[in-house]
Amino acid sequence: MKGKSTSKIFNIIRHEYLLKIRSKGFIIGTLFGPLILVAFLTIPALVAIMSEDSTERKLAVVDETGLFGEKLVNNEPDKFYIESTPIEELKTQVLDSKIDGFLLIPANILEAGKVEVYTRGGGGLGFTGSIRSELAWEVRKQRLLDAGASDEILEVVNKGLEIETNKLTEEGEQKDYTEAFAVMGYVLGFMIYGMMFMYGGLVMRGVIEEKSNRIVEVIASSAKPFEIMFGKVVGIGAVGLTQVLCWIILAVGVLSLAGPIISSFATPDNMAQGMAATGQGLPQGFEIPEISPWIGVAFVFYFLSGYFIYASLFAAVGSAVDQEQDAQQLQAPVTLPIILPILFIFSIMQNPDSVLATVLSLFPLFSPILMIVRIAATEVPFWQIALSVVLMIGTFIGALWVSSRIYRIGIMMTGRKPAIKDLIKWARRG
User: Fold this and answer.
1) How far is CA 174 from the centre of its chain?
2) What are the start-end ranges of the H helices in 326-381?
3) Distances (CA, A) of 46 to 37, 123, 185, 190
4) At CA 107, angle to CA 104 and CA 113, rounded to 5?
5) What single string gives the DSSP state of each residue in 94-112?
6) 50-54, 69-73, 224-228, 332-336: lowest mean pLDDT where?
7) 309: Cβ–Cβ under 8 A, 6 or more apart, which residues?
8) Element (H, E) at 118
9) N or C: which end of the chain has fewer CB within 10 A?
10) 413 has a pLDDT exceeding 80
11) Contact at 8 Å (CB) between 119 and 57?
């Protein structure tokens, strides 16, 4: 009997795998998925950088000191212009919408350290940010000049600071790419977040479709509900793993091809010319960090374990409803634990060794996203990784047991819209 059951599960796994892997959606997602992900992650950051301190408003500047107004206008002529109209008249012009507003630089700014802006309200963060970024250094510089500071001292004060972190190992000293690995952890965690939603949703929609088309009744005549659910979850999980491996192969191929091409163009001479032309360049000693293969192993494990947990729950939800619209209320308890870790991901990037980061990453429903962030960003103790592995395997077994009991009853129930309490009842008696 065990051999027959295994054979049935394998046939269901093969059917689900071949059905999904031959679809246009899989091919398009495999080829263009990385590009979409990169665009999704980088475009908002690029837009934020490009629009930093930007504003559509243009302010009149009333400078009672005679020291800063002209400098503001010279630096940002699109944002500021000098105005000598009396304050009360300018306030009237603001109320009548004749001007966007005005900036008052008081005579005692060097002592008080405060300016006043008058508008009809609003303007966004870029509005005040543009004033602060342009005026703060000029005021600080004037204070230093009044204190007798020379131009050399001003240059020293304005000089930036570069932080280089080093990692000590038994093999010796090496550069520590803390920030780069923290960002990589965020990207990997976000990938797992998106893929759990995508493939978990595929499982749920597949169950709903088979149930609504009565296909599941035919399948149930030759296989047990648990075998159907388990085969569907594993089959679609194999599709996800195949897609991830294809992405890794594509990434390695692109990097291996791009490296020699970039090197052939980016010679020391033309790099120096480019830096001289733009006034910018890569930091001295810039290197691409070497990524440990264990990060890749951890990514695959946490993706698969997280997928199996949530796909089992998504399958249970799909078995309980007749159409996808009815599943929205029931899937809230399933999707919420996937969304919540995203709220903590930046905090964990900032301090991956904190008690909060440790506790949250060990919680099995959060581990798929948060533990991979910590593994990439810091050196996680082995006992924590081992404990998370045990907890996730145990959670998967528990989720599979609960979901199979719901699935067994749900796939045969039609014509009514169940509530969450019904699913709890089915899990108890299933």
Assistant:
1) 28
2) 327-330, 332-350, 355-362, 367-377
3) 14, 21, 19, 18
4) 75
5) HHTTSSSEEEEE-TTHHHH
6) 50-54
7) 364, 365, 368, 392, 395, 396, 399
8) strand 116-119
9) N
10) no
11) yes
pLDDT tens string 152-173: 777 776 776 666 666 656 666 6
Q: Please tell me what DSSP assigns to residue 91.
A: H
293-320 vs 225-265: helix crossing angle, rounded to 10: 140
Residues 6 or more apart whose CB falls under 8 angstroms from that of 269 comprise: none
Tell me phi and psi for residue 321, to 5 degrees.
-120, 165
Residue 33 CB neighbours (<10 A): 20
pLDDT at 115 over 50: yes
Q: How many CA atoms lie within 13 A of 137 on its CB side?
A: 12
Token output for 188: 């990997």
DSSP tag of 412: T
User: Reduced to 3 states, what is the DSSP secondary structure of residue 12?
Assistant: helix
Query: β-pairing, 101-105 with 116-119?
Result: antiparallel
Cα 248 to its chain centre, rounded Å, is 19
Q: Which two tokens stand for residue 158?
A: 């304005």
**pLDDT value, residue 383:** 94
DSSP track, 217-268: HHHHTTS-HHHHHHHHHHHHHHHHHHHHHHHHHHHHHHHHHHHHHHHHH--H
